[in-house]
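Figure S7 source data.
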Amino acid sequence: MSFTLAIVGRPNVGKSTLFNRLVGKKLALVDNQPGVTRDLREGEARLGDLRFTVIDTAGLEDTTDDSLQGRMRRLTERAVDMADVCLFMIDARAGITSIDMMFAEILRKRSAHVILAANKSEGSAADAGVLEAYNLGLGEPIRLSAEHGEGLNDLYSVLMPLADDFEEREQESAPETDVEVSEEPENDGAPVPTVAKPLQIAVVGRPNAGKSTLINRILGEDRLLTGPEPGITRDAISVATIWDNTPMRIFDTAGMRKKAKVQDKVEKLSVSDGLRAVKFAEVVVVLLDAAIPFEQQDLRIADLAEREGRAVVLAVNKWDVEEDKQGKLRALKEAFDRLLPQLRGAPLVTVSAKTGRGLDRLQDAILRAHDVWNRRVSTAKLNRWLSGMIEAHPPPAPQGRRIKLRYMTQAKTRPPGFVVMCSQPDKMPESYSRYLVNGLRDDFDMPGTPIRLTMRGQG
Ligand code: GDP
Ligand code: GDP
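C-alpha cells for the predicted guanosine-5'-diphosphate complex:
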C-alpha cells in the first residue's frame, strides 16, 4: 500500500526532529513489533496527501564508546535494507564531515533511492554547507529546516513520484511474501485508476543543446497537452503528453527559462536544475550538441543520471547540420565508449529537434531503455547463470581462503538490483563485481541500464 522511508545520518543532524514532524501527533511507536530493534523507531508519516512508514535511526546519541561508528554503520545498514527510500540528512551548518562521507558510501552501495537533505538550512549560515553537500555525489540536496518546517514542499515533490512508483510496483508483484496487516481501510473505496501511468522522462543537457526545441517538437504535434502544471516544485515543472500513443510526462527545468537572466551562473544553474529533473525521471535523455558533444558538463550529468540509477539515452542533436554523418557517428561512438564506460550499451541516437528527424528512433530508444530498466530475471535462471560464471572464472581467494558465492537473487528493478550471498563479502574485489555486472548485462540483455550488485554475508 505504501512505502518505507528511513531517515539516516550521524547524530544531532536533526533526524528525530524531522521524524517527529512527519509523524506528528499521531505518533505510533511500534517498538514492540518483532524485527524492529530498540534503536530503530518506526512511525506512520503524513506529508501532504502521502502516507508512508518512517524509520528513525535514533538512540545513538548517548553512545560515546569507540564502537559508535561500527554500531552506526550496522544500524544504518539495517535501516537501509528495511526501507524503500533513504533520506540521508546532513547538518548544513556544520558542513560535511568524514562520518557523513562514510554514510554516503553505504548509501551509494546499498540503497536504490537516496534523498539528500541538508538540514538546519534556515538562513544564510547554511549556504556553504548546502553547496558542500553536492560533493557527496548523491545529487542535489534538498534544503530543509526540520525545526522550522521549511523545505517540506520540496521533500514532498521528491517523494511523490517515488510513491507512485512503489504503488505501481506493488500492484504488479504478487503479495505472496509481503503480509501486511492493516487495521485501516486501504482506500476509501475509490476506484483504482486504470489509465497507464505516463513514462517519466527528463531532457537534460547544456544550455543551447536544443532541449526546449526538442520538447516543443514533441509537444507540438499533440493536442492532448495537459500541462504545464504548477506546484510540483518551484524549479521543475512537468508536462504530460501522448507521444505516438505513449503517455509521457516530461520534466522540464526552470533553468531553461531563467538562463538569460543570470549569464555568469548559466553553467551552475543548468547543472543543478538538471540534477533535479533527473530525480524525477525514469529515463533521462542527455541531449548533446553534435558540434560540441561530450563536454565536461555533459559527462557530469550523464554520470549523475547513472549514479541516480536512471535509465539513460544519449541523443545527439542538430544532426541536420552535420556534413560527414558516417565519420561523425564513428567518432561519437568511440568517444562515448571512452568517456562514459559506466553507461556501456546505452543507446545513442542522432536527432534533429529542428526538423523532427530521428524522433521516432529516440522514442524507440526511450521505450527500450525503460523496458530494460524494469527487467526482472528469475532466481532460478540467475543461479544457473551464476554457477556458469563461477566455473568460467572463480572468485579470488584472499589470504588463501576462497570467497564462496552461494546464492543470488534480484532484489529490485528500476534499476535492476541484485544481491549475492557470499562468504567474506568485504573482501570481494571490485573487479570481480564488475565481471558479474558486465556478465549480467550481456547475458540477460540489459544494455545501458545501471545495474546494482550487492555482496552480502550470511546472517
Ligand atoms: P538527531 O539526533 O540526528 O535525530 O537530531 P535531533 O533531531 O535530536 O536534533 C539535534 C539538534 O538539532 C536539536 O537540538 C534540534 O533542536 C536541532 N535541530 C533540528 N533541526 C533543526 C533545524 O532545522 N535547524 C536548527 N537550527 N536546529 C535544528
Ligand atoms: P536549450 O537551451 O537546450 O533549451 O536550447 P534551445 O532549444 O533554446 O536551442 C538552442 C539553439 O539551437 C536555438 O537557436 C535552436 O534553434 C537551435 N537548435 C535546436 N535544435 C536544433 C537542431 O536540431 N538543429 C539546428 N540546426 N539547430 C537547432
